[in-house]
Amino acid sequence: MSSSELNTGLPHSARIYDHLLGGKDNFEADRDAAAFITADWPHLAISMRANRNYMARQARFIAAELGIRQFLDIGAGLPTAPNLHEVVQDVDPSSRVMYVDNDPIVLVHARALLTGAAEGRTAYLDADLHDPSTIIGSTEFRQTFDLSRPVALSLIAILQFIVDDDRVHHIIDTLMEPLPPGSVLALSTVTADSAPDEVNKGVAAYLARGINEKARDLAECQDLFRGLDLIDPGVVLVNHWRPDEAARAVPDEHVHMYGGVAVKR
């Protein structure tokens, strides 16, 4: 779907996510799809919240511990606090963030709500992850980032919607290629390892509603970081990635996302 088209009769993954997290920027088709999917995937909302908390923890780690001040967040979704720019600009207000998404509702809300610190920069690009060359070739990319300094590429809860592994590797490689050494890849994606029956039924429910999705096992998720140096603790369920008290309280069988952070040599 192009950015100029808004089909409220078809469910969209970003708006389903918004509904399950308690947001209001969704339509009847999204709410119906969410009800259909969660009938088979009852702990999906818990897993989504665990993933959102992981996003905030890893972004703060990348900013505070690795000293990175530039972030490219693709598949940003609808604004849901805390947003990535809020986390990293809390560490350093001069941090630069570029959000990328291709849903028109996301575009409207991002431009209205994702306003960052005056000292930094918060940009938005209407583009599709399936076309990574357009992202790195955009004026917004060139104007936002200083490519003599490291950039963190954030692919949070988006790669499960690209089911072809070769295509996923091409996308990651294309996006990482122009980033200098010391840059970081941070991602999370769906797995059935922690709850096979529930997740596989849920993935089938997504497919039944016309949304392609793939659950990847640990080896497949580790392979997404090929050629990069994983940071401890490696690829783990997102509630185990440098957990805080809230993350430790979530049972593993309710968390259906692997996550990890790795550095480009």
Write up this protein.
The protein has helices at 13-20, 28-40, 44-64, 84-91, 104-113, 132-136, 139-144, 165-176, 196-208, 218-223, 245-248; strands at 70-74, 96-101, 121-126, 152-156, 184-190, 229-230, 236-237, 257-263. It is globular. Strand 2 (96-101), helix 5 and strand 3 (121-126) form a beta-alpha-beta unit. Strands 1, 2, 3, 4, 5, 6, 7 and 8 form an 8-stranded mixed β-sheet that branches. With 265 residues, the chain is an alpha/beta fold. InterPro entries: SAM-dependent_MTases_sf, SAM_dep_MeTrfase_SAV2177_type. This is SAM-dependent methyltransferase.
- Summed up, the helix count is 11
Give the overall shape. Answer: globular
Mean pLDDT value: 92
Number of DSSP-assigned strands: 8
Note the beta-strand portion. Answer: 15-25%
Give the uncertain stretches in residue-range form: none
| SSE order, one letter for each helix or strand | HHHEHEHEHHEHEHHEEHE
Radius of gyration: 17 Å
What percentage of residues falls in helices of 4 or more residues?
A: 40-55%
The computed structural class is: alpha/beta
What does the largest sheet look like?
A: 8 strands, mixed
Distance between the termini: 36 Å
InterPro entries: SAM-dependent_MTases_sf, SAM_dep_MeTrfase_SAV2177_type
Pfam families: Methyltransf_19
Organism: Paractinoplanes toevensis
Protein name: SAM-dependent methyltransferase
